[in-house]
Amino acid sequence: MSNVILVTGGSRSGKSRFAEGLALSYPALRGYLATAEAGDAEMADRIARHQGRRGEEWETLEEPLQVEETIRANDGRYGIILLDCVTLWLSNLLFSCDGGAAEALSRVERFTESFKSLQTPLVIVTNEVGMGIVPEHPLSRTFRDLSGEANELIAARADEVHVCFAGLPLKLKG
């Protein structure tokens, strides 16, 4: 069984940089599983900034939907895999799954069940989206609830959990 570390926090809280730092303590080659798609110029800029922080000891895998399958297909290939991020994966699933949030959550549950069979350590980045106002739009509330439930499932099965606030990490578990 591999070591699974969850890193959560709000937008721009430093969670990705912290997660990358954790992953650097593992041997190269490191896999970076990116779930974002550059749908506009602002997102393309965000992706470029993330890529710019990583050195040549990282290999990027881009997969917006088949996260569990991609990790399983690359298990044992890397010293560590960093998944960034669950929140974008959930958004992608919510818009692509015929079964909506229920199917997306089922995929997350299946993903967490795979932790016990993985050999490669895994660092998972996600966002805490439920700490603010209640969204006005029903789809936004569905997404907020899905994110919270998914984070609970992952945290329950992770070996370590960290939260970042204002660039400062706090260890919650492990």
Automatic annotation (TrEMBL):
Signal peptide: none
Catalytic activity as recorded in UniProt: adenosylcob(III)inamide + GTP = adenosylcob(III)inamide phosphate + GDP + H(+); adenosylcob(III)inamide phosphate + GTP + H(+) = adenosylcob(III)inamide-GDP + diphosphate; adenosylcob(III)inamide + ATP = adenosylcob(III)inamide phosphate + ADP + H(+)
Active site residues according to the UniProt entry: 50
InterPro entries for this protein: CobU/CobP (IPR003203), P-loop_NTPase (IPR027417)
Pathway: Cofactor biosynthesis; adenosylcobalamin biosynthesis; adenosylcobalamin from cob(II)yrinate a,c-diamide: step 5/7; Cofactor biosynthesis; adenosylcobalamin biosynthesis; adenosylcobalamin from cob(II)yrinate a,c-diamide: step 6/7
EC number from the UniProt entry: 2.7.1.156, 2.7.7.62
GO molecular function, one term: cobinamide phosphate guanylyltransferase activity
Matches recorded under Gene3D superfamilies: P-loop containing nucleotide triphosphate hydrolases
Residues noted as binding GTP in the record, renumbered to the chain: 9-16, 34-36, 62, 84
GO biological process: cobalamin biosynthetic process
Keywords noted in UniProt: ATP-binding, Cobalamin biosynthesis, GTP-binding, Kinase, Nucleotide-binding, Nucleotidyltransferase, Transferase
Role, per record: Catalyzes ATP-dependent phosphorylation of adenosylcobinamide and addition of GMP to adenosylcobinamide phosphate.
Family as reported in the entry's similarity comment: Belongs to the CobU/CobP family.
NCBIfam families: PRK05800.1
Protein name: Adenosylcobinamide kinase
Source organism per UniProt: Citrifermentans bemidjiense (strain ATCC BAA-1014 / DSM 16622 / JCM 12645 / Bem) (Geobacter bemidjiensis)
Gene from which this protein is expressed: cobU
